[in-house]
């Protein structure tokens, strides 16, 4: 009848601390720090075209109308690209395009419009200005911007510097 094992105070504290720490991290970070992937939505593949000859991506804004909203961002993850991208509307018809991975640890960065910055989803939260420079780190290298311009109802991103 006495099948209950006594737990020492030390065992209890170790187990409780581990559980509470895990819950806190998930609560603070939405568990994204464990997956390397943020909440930025992927763009519909029908909303863009990769032009291999010119090394350009054309985004059709009529098929991705949310990108016209100031503060909105999307990511492009496509096996034909050297690296995934994040594209953000930073306001006043200005768009920015960067590799989506943080230069410190390869976690995704997300655009935070209220702060006008790109921020790593990792717990270290490296931060980058809208031109890609590091404003807070451990990251010590900037995000490399891709030239982007609006051409009518399309965004054109040059994949060559």
Descriptive labels:
Rieske Iron-sulfur Protein; four-stranded antiparallel sheet; single chain
Please describe what this structure looks like:
By secondary structure, the chain is α+β, with helices and mostly antiparallel strands. It has a single domain (45-158), classed as Rieske [2Fe-2S] iron-sulphur domain (Rieske Iron-sulfur Protein). The chain contains two helices and eleven strands. Strands 1-2-11-10 form a four-stranded antiparallel β-sheet, with no helix packed on it. A four-stranded antiparallel β-sheet has the order 6-7-8-9, with no helix packed on it. Strand 1 (48-51) and strand 2 (56-60) form a beta hairpin. The protein is elongated and about 75 Å long. The model is unreliable at 21-33 (pLDDT under 50).
> Could you list the spans in which at least 5 consecutive residues all have pLDDT below 50?
21-33
Distance between the termini: 74 Å
CATH fold annotation: Rieske Iron-sulfur Protein
Round the mean pLDDT to the nearest integer and report it: 87
Protein structure class: alpha+beta
Strand order across the biggest sheet? 1-2-11-10
- Overall, the morphology is elongated
- Give the CATH H-level superfamily: Rieske [2Fe-2S] iron-sulphur domain
State the share of residues found in helices, binned by percent: 10-25%
CA radius of gyration is 21 Å
Secondary-structure element order, as H and E? HHEEEEEEEEEEE
How much of the polypeptide forms β-strand, as a percent range? 25-35%
Any chance you could write out the topology, listing elements then pairs?
Blueprint: H1 9-29, H2 32-35, E1 48-51, E2 56-60, E3 73-76, E4 85-91, E5 94-99, E6 109-112, E7 117-120, E8 127-128, E9 134-136, E10 148-151, E11 154-158
Antiparallel strand pairs: 1-2, 2-11, 3-4, 4-5, 6-7, 7-8, 8-9, 10-11
